[in-house]
Amino acid sequence: MKSRLAQLKSFRLLDTVLLSSFFLSGICALMYQVAWQRSLYSIIGVDIDSITIIVSVFMLGIGFGGMLGGWIADLAPKRRIHIYAVAELAIALYGFSSLLLVHSIDDWLVATGGGPLSSGAGSLLFLIVPTTFMGMTLPLLTMVFNDWQDSIGVSVGQLYFINTLGAATGAGLVPFVLLPLMPLDNVIHMAAFGNLTVAALALLAYAWQTRHSNRTLVAGS
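and the corresponding structure tokens:
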């Protein structure tokens, strides 16, 4: 009985750590979306075509990442939290280098003469990698939560709610609080540091889960 209560407490603590990290991940994702949109608008212009291209590419990457994350979650069931941390770390590294990539795309568009096709290709090349990693996070964590909640509906709903709440917070934070106080570069760097924090929390949860599993195995033997 005591062992069962200790297990439940451990899972609740893991829930809190991972849900907090996913809330922060949602904030960072929308910080990137708003900041990267503005960065791309400065080189491809602001009109209905550019808005449609950028939003479509963002959704394409997240959708593809969701499919990839689900496949990886099934392939490596014991390392899901670890892979989630790696995905967040990859987003952070991309965030730090994204401003240099925007300048490279600008030079490429000038060299090719611009145009809708070049703008779409540039946006795709710029956004597809980080958005794929963003999309991977939900299925990875969903399968983690489903392991101890044994309810895929509850796991998806809980995580989607937390991440969407974070995204809504980020969407309001950037235009109304951050951009009036700091340049766009700093907003992107702040989001990248946020992803580093998420990765650290995930690695903490992974170490915690691994230690708990080892203790369970020792107790069972």
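(Above: one complete record from the training split.) The CA atoms of residues 37 and 54 lie 7 Å apart.
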